[in-house]
């Protein structure tokens, strides 16, 4: 494109507004249309008066954009609009993790068939340019593992607990007050946001399509400040980690709270930061970190995608995306288990007997002093064992009468950034 690149934007919300501001400041692009529902209430005086404001996608197409930017979020009607733009041969930029996680493979296929492009850098880790780095900078490697902190809300909550021993509810309320977390933060807390982002990374890094729902998720809501005390005694801290490992034409993957080593790059990620580690057979581990969310950082990713298209560098080597033959979470990792019990003699012996029967070896038992006997937390760390076996043993243990809270089991992923999970 030699003249100014004509951009049409759908969604004038947090990211859309930041994108519009950034586009308006440039000489090489022209914002020709903005679409939003009930658009009249969205009008602002700082947008060029020649820009068309509309509620209709047909109107938007009539503006003959060179690039369509989708920032309304959610699957419908976003996926349909993206499809229609690609069918018309119009390049598309989106930050929509749900659309890319669910429909990315078919939309990329459509883009290739129409000789156009679909870019989605903002869909994972906001302003951290990890998608393009994997697609282009690491194209020469065979990637075997991706692991990341992909949800800033969870990281904010966990690091508040770590630093100030803040209870979960208090840290969540604070994240909401600061605008990191939605009023309904369940998508973040329960891991569904990171699950969709992990599905996108699996597609980009391994060329494998997985249904996001097939990736196992565990909530961070059961983690408490006491877990950071015990994790530290094991040389670890706790982060929500989304990881996926390529096993032939299949994937082993999960999202949830996990222990990571205190000297690992994940432990160094504070507040609402994001970090993605990618491991390749030849290049080893490469990490990418930065601001994973927010209007302005995400707008950087979106506008960079637009500029790449405008400059003719938006296309990336076509990767054949195939359906993953198998998706499982059955890793064998060391495990941290916190029990909170009404104390009495014989509890440890009872637990040890169950673990022994399932061939799970105890590495250490730790109990901090100073807790009341009617609600006493202690932890058992287990040597590497298959996760389903540990869960079966814990199912039996959970039926014992001394628990005040259900046991909390967390995988220990020390070194996950450097080696396949299979080698734990
Ligand atoms: N915010 C972030 O930090 C961030 C980071 C990375 C990626 N993203 C992604 O970026 C996208 C936009 O996120 P956002 O935070 O900017 O969301 P947002 O603030 O809710 O903005 C979405 C905008 O789209 C409009 N909209 C929604 N559905 C529509 C429809 N069916 N028809 C017309 N307009 C519609 C909304 O109008 P109303 O005003 O009526 O609601 C709103 O103005 C999402 O895919 C999100 O996952 C966001």
Overview of the structural elements:
- With 424 residues, the chain is α/β, with parallel strands linked by helices.
- 33% of the residues lie in helices and 27% in strands.
- The protein contains 13 helices and 19 strands.
- It has helices at 14-24, 57-62, 78-87, 97-113, 130-137, 152-164, 168-177, 186-189, 192-206, 225-233, 295-310, 347-357, 387-398; strands at 5-10, 29-35, 52-54, 67-70, 92-94, 118-119, 143-149, 208-209, 216-217, 236-247, 250-261, 273-280, 284-291, 322-323, 327-328, 332-341, 362-366, 376-386, 403-411.
- Strands 7, 9, 10, 11, 12, 13 and 15 form a seven-stranded mixed sheet that branches. Strands 3-2-1-4-5-6 form a six-stranded parallel sheet, sandwiched between helices.
- Strand 10 (236-247) and strand 11 (250-261) form a beta hairpin.
- The mean pLDDT is 95.
- The chain binds NADP nicotinamide-adenine-dinucleotide phosphate.
- Residues 11-16, 36-38, 71-73, 77, 95-97, 122, 126, 293-294, 298 line the site of NADP nicotinamide-adenine-dinucleotide phosphate.
- NADP nicotinamide-adenine-dinucleotide phosphate binds at residues 11-16, 36-38, 71-73, 77, 95-97, 122, 126, 293-294, 298.
């Amino acid at each position: 494109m030699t003249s100014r690149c004509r951009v049409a934007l759908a969604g004038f919300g947090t990211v859309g507004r930041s994108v519009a501001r950034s586009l308006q400041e440039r000489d090489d692009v022209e914002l020709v249309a903005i679409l939003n529902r009930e658009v009249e209430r969205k009008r602002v005086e700082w947008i060029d008066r020649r820009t068309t404001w509309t509620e209709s996608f047909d109107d938007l197409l009539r503006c003959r954009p060179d690039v369509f930017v989708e920032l309304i979020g959610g699957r419908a009607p976003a996926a349909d609009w993206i499809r229609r733009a690609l069918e018309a041969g119009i390049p598309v930029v989106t930050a929509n993790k749900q659309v890319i996680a669910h429909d990315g493979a078919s939309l990329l296929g459509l883009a290739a068939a129409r000789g156009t492009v679909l870019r989605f850098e903002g869909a994972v880790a906001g302003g951290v340019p990890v998608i393009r780095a994997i697609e282009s900078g690491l194209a020469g490697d065979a990637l075997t593992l991706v692991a990341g902190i992909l949800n800033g809300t969870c990281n904010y909550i966990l690091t508040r607990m770590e630093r100030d021993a803040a209870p979960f509810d208090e840290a969540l309320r604070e994240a909401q007050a600061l605008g990191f977390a939605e009023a309904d933060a369940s998508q973040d807390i329960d891991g569904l946001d990171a699950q969709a982002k992990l599905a996108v990374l699996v597609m980009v890094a391994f060329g494998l399509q997985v249904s996001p729902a097939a990736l196992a998720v565990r909530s961070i809501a059961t983690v408490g400040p006491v877990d950071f005390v015990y994790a530290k005694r094991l040389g670890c801290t706790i982060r929500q980690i989304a990881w996926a490992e390529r096993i032939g034409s299949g994937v082993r993957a999960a999202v949830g709270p996990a222990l990571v080593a205190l000297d690992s790059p994940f432990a160094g990620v504070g507040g609402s930061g994001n970090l993605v580690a990618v491991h390749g057979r030849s290049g080893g581990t490469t990490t990418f970190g930065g601001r994973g969310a927010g209007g302005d950082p995400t707008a950087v990713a979106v506008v960079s995608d637009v500029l790449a298209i405008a400059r003719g560098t938006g296309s990336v080597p076509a990767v054949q995306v195939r359906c993953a033959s198998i998706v499982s979470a059955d890793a064998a990792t060391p495990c941290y288990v916190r029990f909170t019990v009404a104390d009495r003699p014989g509890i440890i012996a009872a637990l040890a007997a169950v673990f022994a029967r399932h061939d799970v070896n105890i590495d250490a038992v730790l109990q901090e002093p100073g807790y009341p006997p009617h609600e006493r937390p202690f932890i058992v760390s287990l040597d590497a064992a298959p996760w389903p076996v540990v869960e079966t043993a814990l199912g039996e243990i959970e039926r014992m009468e001394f628990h005040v809270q259900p046991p909390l089991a967390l995988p220990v992923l020390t070194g996950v950034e450097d080696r396949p999970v299979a080698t734990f």
